[in-house]
Amino acid sequence: MNAMAGVRKIHPHFLYLLEFKEQKVIDLFKDLRSYILEIYPESNEILYHTHALTTVFSVSDNLSDAFCMLPIYTNHLNLGFNKGTLLQDPYKLLAGTGKLIRHIPIETPKDYRNKKVKELVKSAIDFAVKDMDKPTKSVGETISKIKWTGK
């Protein structure tokens, strides 16, 4: 199981696409990803490339069991919460107007490397575990949904 063997490597297809982003965004993504994996090393990463290059962290191999995501846009990224409207947000950290998804805009490590965000991430994990339909066989896996046409 690769999750317990130290820092989990970024999937090569994702890394290839990530390299097209601004260096500041790349650095923030790598640090924020590490931070989420420190909080919950068992999480599965589900990778997408749609309107944004996105890593979704899930308690299973299903998107429906995701607790947070890191969508990377052209020159910024967010810490998104898939069921953000259902989470307790005592510090009013979450932004957005969607039916479920909420996010924290990320500009510096101070935006996420703090006690309030860590509590929110743990709350999202707890919610996802309780909300999960059936136990997962996947733990600490990387699952790419990226349509790869590259080399």
SSE blueprint and pairings:
Elements (H helix, E strand, L loop, with lengths): L11 H7 L4 H17 L4 E6 L3 E6 L7 E7 L4 E5 L20 E5 L8 H17 L10 E3 L7
Parallel strand pairs: 1-6
Antiparallel strand pairs: 1-2, 2-3, 3-4, 4-5
Protein name: DUF1801 domain-containing protein
Organism: Ohtaekwangia kribbensis
Features of the shown structure:
21% strand; single chain; disordered N terminus; 151 residues; 6 strands; 6-stranded mixed β-sheet; 27% helix
Structure described in brief:
The protein is an alpha+beta fold and 151 residues long. It is built from three helices and six strands.
Overview of this structure, please?
With 151 residues, this protein is an alpha+beta fold. It has one domain (8-132). The chain contains three helices and six strands; from the N terminus they run ααβββββαβ. It has a six-stranded mixed beta sheet. The longest helix is centred in the first third of the chain and has 17 residues, at 23-39. The model is unreliable at 1-5 (pLDDT under 50).
Structural class category: alpha+beta
Strand order of the largest sheet: 5-4-3-2-1-6
Please give the alpha-carbon distance between the first and last residues. 27 Å
**Chain-averaged pLDDT:** 91
Given as residue ranges, the uncertain stretches (5+ residues, pLDDT < 50) are: 1-5
Estimated helix fraction: 25-40%
Order of helices and strands: HHEEEEEHE
What is the makeup of the main sheet?
6 strands, mixed
How many whole angstroms does the radius of gyration measure? 15 Å
Q: Strand content of the residues, in percent?
A: 15-25%
